[in-house]
What we know:
Number of helices: 6
CATH class of the largest domain: Mainly Beta
Largest sheet: 8 strands, mixed
Structural class: alpha+beta
Number of domains: 3
Number of strands: 24
CATH topology of the largest domain: Immunoglobulin-like
Shape: globular
Radius of gyration: 25 Å
Helix content: 10-25%
Distance between the termini: 64 Å
Low-confidence stretches: 16-20, 283-318, 340-380
Amino acid sequence: MKPWSKISAVFLVCALAPFVSAETLTGTVKNGTTNQPSAGDDVVLIKLAQGMEEAARTKTDAEGKFSFTMEDSGGPHLIRVIHQSVTYHTMAPPGTTSVEAKVYDVSKKVAGVSPIADLMYVQAGEGQLGISRLFAVSNPSNPPRTQMNDRNFEFYLPDGVQIDQAQAQTEGGQWVDSAPVPQAEKGRYAFIFPLRPGTTQFQVSYHLPYNGSAKIDPNPLYPLEHLVVIFPRSIAFTAAQAGLYEDKQPPDQPKATAKVAANVHPGEALSFEISGTGMLQDQNPQETGAEGGGTAPPAAAGSQTAEPRPGGGLGPPIDAPDPLDKYRPYILVGFALVLAGGAVYVAKRPRDMTAADPLAVDVETPVVARAAEPAVPARSGMLLEALKEEMFALEVEHKQGSISQPEYEKARAALDQTLDRAIKRDSQKK
C-alpha cells in the first residue's frame, strides 16, 4: 500500500472510531385505541445513569417506527412518547436494542371511568392529626382511551390542612409527584393527571391541629364501591350514623382496625369522630411468628373468638368474601406510603427543626412533599425504594420544567443527604 493510502486509511479509522461503539435503539409505537401504528408522535430518549438527561428527540414515521443512535448504550434509558399531549413511558434497560411502546387516544370524558375506592389512613399524636388517603380510579374503556381534563379527579379536604405529599401512579408505573389544584369551592381540590386505561391511584397526605378528638367527613364526590378507614386500635371511632361501617381487619396489620362502608354515595352521612392517639405500626415478624408476612391476623375488635377446632380451627364460616381482599394491594401500598414516605408528622417532634438533621429538611416540590423522618419505624428497604422513586419523580419534573432550578437544587440536595444517611444506616444494621 502506498504511503498516502496508509495515511488515508488511518484518518478514516480515526473518523469512524466514535461511531464504532455506538448502538442503534429502534422502536415502534402502537395506538392501543385503534390497534394501528401511531404516526407523528414525539419520542424522547432520556438517560437515567446520572439524573435524567434528554439525549435525543425524534418523531415516529408513518409506520410508527423510530430510532436513536446511543453513544452511551451501557446505562439505562427511558423512552417517553407524547401522544395528544399525554406522555407514556417505556423503560430501556442496558443492552436493549428494541422497544415497543403503546399510547391511547385522549378524550376529555371517557365512558365508564369511575372511582372505586377511598382508603383513609388515620394517625394521631399529641397536638397533630395525620391522614393519608389513597384513591383508586378505574378506566375500563373499550376500546381503551385516556381521559384528560382540567378536573380529572376531585375530592374534598377539611379546612386548615397542610398537604405534605401528593402523588399519582398509573397501572404498572411508578409513583410521581402530582400537585392537587385548589378549586373555586373552598376545600375542593382536583388532580390534573391523565386517567389511562387500567387503574390509576392517587395519594394525598396531610396534617392538621388535633386536641384529642376530631370529626372527619370523607365527603365523597363520586359513588364508591367501598370507603375504608384504617387506624390504630388505640384510637376510638364513632360513626355519625349507625350501621354504615363494618368492622374488618386490615391485611397483615394486627394492630390496626378497619371500618368499611360499602356502596357509598355523595351526600351520605359518612362522617365520624375519632378520639385518642396512636400511630400505625409496621408489622413485626417476631410477633407473628412468621418471616416477612406473619400468620393470619387476629379477629377485628368486637368480633367473637373462634371456638377450638381440629387442626387449630378456621373460625366461623364466611358466607361472603371479605371486601378488603379486593383492596389488599392498595392497603399494603398505602401502609408503605404512610410508613416510608414521611407524609404524616408526629406531634411530639420539636417544631423548630433545623437543617442540622438532613431528615428534617423541608423538600419543597410542587406538591410540598417533605423528606421528614418517618413517623413510625419502617423497613430500611422500603425507605430506600421510596427515596429512589422520589428522586426519579423529581428528575422527571425538572426535565418537564414544572419545577424551578432553585427548587430542584434544594430538593435534590436534601434527597441526596437523606439517601446517603439511609444507606449508611442500612449498612450498619447489616
